[in-house]
Each structure stands twice: as structure tokens, then as C-alpha cells.
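User: Please run a holo structure prediction.
Assistant: Happy to. Please share the sequence and the ligand.
User: Here you go; the ligand is 3,4-dihydroxybenzoic acid.
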Amino acid sequence: MATRSTFLTDELNDYITARFSSETDELRRLNTEAEAEGIPAISISPEQINFLQIMLRSINARTVLEIGSLAGYSSIAMSSALPPDGRLYACEFLSAHAQFIRRKVSELGLSNTITVLEGAALETITELFAQSDIVLDAVFIDADKPKYSAYLDLVLPRLRLGGLVIGDNALAWGEVARSATTTFEPHNVQALDAFNTRMSTHPQLLSTLVPLGDGMVVGIKIS
Ligand code: DHB
Ligand code: MG
């Protein structure tokens, strides 16, 4: 009989965060400044950026696409796991957020590594693909939940074999396994559930769900 999983209490979560955080002073400051400018405090957690960096380094990622960059916390964290000639495309829908990211990227001397694509990601990514024969090593999706599956369909043909697709909020704020969701907008929970199912059954992907933060669904392209 398989061992049941250990329930992750706040105490255990704090234990993990205290040991396996990749949050630098710069990133901490970024979140403080973002909040002061009215950007919602919904970035991924310090142990999640640590996990993303490990994932990127483990596949020698050079070219990364992020869909939904908020204030650039995860963009900047992921960029530090890339080689000097690496590139991260940060898609952000909201203009005020995109401007904030550009300012931070410039302040931190990352303009040669991070490119902000402002606007609707289905459009900006389509444009990026039309303009170049870019091949992606990894894609991190953390944007509008109902579009996760459309983002997957769009990027998968440009993801190399052995490349990764990672989606945030795979546990849908704890609501994903409930038959009737209460607290959060049901369409977002349903979209995340559908995305998890799609990731887990996709013939080109081998996937898992890692319960860090609000959960990350991770798929590696196998065919
Ligand atoms: C929300 C979005 C996120 O991606 C997240 O990680 C947490 C909250 C939101 O839209 O409320
Ligand atoms: Mg998220």
C-alpha cells in the first residue's frame, strides 16, 4: 500500500521556505515596490522560484517564455538560471505592469536577457513566432486561467523535445478537487482542472503536479 502524502501545514510550508528559498533582496524589494504601486501581491512564492530555477538548470534552458509576468518577480528569478546568452520573453497584458517590469529590468541591468511583450499573449506570442524561428526550452504559464489550454496549444509546436511546460495555480487555491467550489470564481477553478487533465493526458507530455505554493503542473515534452 502506497504511503499517503503528508499534509502540508503552515509550519511545514515555513520549514520548506526557510531552507529552499531563492528570494534575493532585489526580489523582495521588487515585491514591496510593486505592492506600493498597487500591483496585486499574487506572485509565486520564494520556494516556487527556487523550483523553477532548478527545472531550468536541469534542462540547460536558454530560451524561456513566461505568460503572465505581473511585476516580473518570476521573470527576474528565472532569468538568473539562464546562461549569459539566455533570453526570457515576459508576456504581460497590463500596460502599467509591463512598464513596472521594464523599469526593474533596466535597473537590474537585465535588458539584454529579458524582453517584455506587452499585450494579449495569444497575439504577442503569435507575432513573436511569425517573426522568428525561435525554439523554446521552457514555458511558464501564470496568466488568465481560462486561456491556459490555448496557451499550451500555441506554444507546444515551438517547444523542443525535452522542454518543459509549467503552469501555476494547479491546485486552484485549494479548490481544484472540490465538486462544488465556493470561495473563488468557479470558471477559473474549472479551467485549471481542465488544464491539469489536459497536461496529464497529453500524448506529447509526461506530467506531474508539484504541490509547492498553489501547485505547479509540470510537463516534459516527450514526443
Ligand atoms: C491569482 C492569480 C494567480 O496566478 C495567483 O498565483 C494567485 C491569485 C488571482 O487572479 O487572484
Ligand atoms: Mg499564479
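The first strand starts at residue 63 and ends at 67.
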